[in-house]
Amino acid sequence: MQKRGIWQRLSGLSRHDFNQSGAYLIGLLIVAIYVSTASAIVVSCLVGVWWLITGEFKQLPVIFKTSPVAAGAMVLYLCFFIGLGYGQVPDDAAYSTIRKYRELSYIPVLSCFFIHERYRTIAWKAFLVASVISLAGSFLMDLGVMEMQRNKSFSLKSRITHSIFIAFFIYYCAHKVTEIERRHKIWFYIAALIGIFNLFFVVEGRTGQLIFIILAPLFAVQRFGKKGLLTVIIGVICFMGLFINYSDKSSRIRYGLTNTFNYWHQDDIKKPVDVGVRFKYWQHSMTLIAEKPLLGYGTGSFEDQYKRLSGDKRGLQNPHNEFLLITIQLGLLGFISYCGFMFSQFYSARSLRQLDKWLAQGLLLTLIVTSLFNSPLLDHAEGHWFAVLLALCHAASRVKVNPGSKDMAVTGYHI
Predict the structure, then answer these.
(1) Which of 53, 250, 354, 378 is 20 to 30 Å from the Cα of 100, by its Cα?
(2) What is the DSSP track for 75-135?
(3) pTM of this structure
(4) Using the 8-state DSSP alphabet, how is residue 216 labeled?
(5) Residue 86 in contact with residue 371, Cβ under 8 Å?
(6) Dihedral in degrees, nearest 10, Cα atoms 43, 47, 52, 55
(7) pLDDT given at position 15
(8) Contact 412, 66 (CB under 8 A)
(9) pLDDT greater than 80 at residue 76
(10) Residue 299 has what pLDDT?
(11) CA pair distance 225, 221, nearest whole angstrom
C-alpha cells in the first residue's frame, strides 16, 4: 500500500476533527494574549499554519465581500505599505512598524475560522477563562502571593492593558446576566463585581475606568431603554463621587485631574508631568500633522519626526493617541482609513444577532476610547486582543446552521 503524505492524511480527517483541534488552538491564542507575549506570538504563527493546511484561506473572497470590518482592516493595513513608498525612514523602523500593525491582517484570517460556530463557542469560553486567570493573577500579586519582576501594577500585563481587558469583561458579564438561565446568573454577577473591585481598588487603570464609565450607560440603553439609562447614570455619578472623595485608591484620578489643570495654567518654565506630558505629546503631534497633512511623513516616521520637532534626544515611540500616530505617518489618507475602519464596525454591527450586536458596539466604544489615550493597534497585547474580538463579534453575521451538520455555512448579511 502506498504511504500517504501529510496532506493526504490531513485530508482524510473529517471537518469536525479539524474544527475540534483548530477551535482549541484559537482558544489557546486568546489565553496566551492575556498571559505571555512570547506565547501569543508562537500560537498566532501556529494559527496561521492551521489556516493554510485546513484550507480556510479559501473563505477569504467571501469574507472580504461580506465583512466590512475585515475589508476595512486590510485597507488600513495596505495604507501602511503605501507609506513605505514615500517616507524618508530607515528600513528597520519602517518594517518594524509594518510588523507591529500586522494584527490588522489577523481580522480576516480569524474571520475565516469564526464562520464555524464551534470556533466561536470555544473562543468565548477561552475569553472567560483568560479573564478569570488575569483577575486571579492580579489579586494574588496584590496579596503578595505571586510576584513579577518590574511590575508594580498588580497585573499580568501593564496597568493600561489589564484595565481595558477587565472593563470589557465586566460589560460582557453584565450582558450574560440578562441573557442566560437564572441558575447560572450568580456566577456572572460575582465575576462582574470582582472585576469592578479589581478595576477601581487593585489595578487602578484610568483608561479602563473611563471605558467602564462609558460602557455602563451603553449597556443600560441596550437592555433597559431611557429609564435604565437615567438610573445607571445616577448610579455611576454617585459611585464615582464617593470613590474620588473617600477612597485613597482614587489618587491616580485626582493626580491626573490636577496635572491637567496645571498644564493649561502653568508657566512655560514648569515641566509637565503625568497627563500633562500627554498634552505635550499631542500638541507636538498636531504641529507635525500641520506640516504634512495629506500623506504624512511615511510609515515608521513618528519617532524621528517627533525628536526633530521637540528636541528630545530620548525619542518617543508613540504619542499615546492612535489617531494622531496614524495621521502623522499617513496623513489624511491614514486618518480617513482609520475612521473608515471604525465606521465599518458600526455598520457591520447592525446586521448582527442581538447579543453579538451589543458586544460589537461595546467593543467599538472600547477601541475609540483606547485610541484617544493610547495606541492599541501598535501595542502587541491590545492589538491581538482587538483583532480576535473584532473577528469573533463580526463573524456572527455570516454563520448559519446547516441542517444535520455541526458546522456553519457562510451566508449574506441579515440587514
Answers:
(1) 53
(2) HHHHHHHHTTTT----HHHHHHHHHHTTHHHHHHHHHHHHTSHHHHHHHHHHHHHHHHHHH
(3) 0.89
(4) H
(5) no
(6) 160
(7) 52
(8) yes
(9) yes
(10) 95
(11) 4
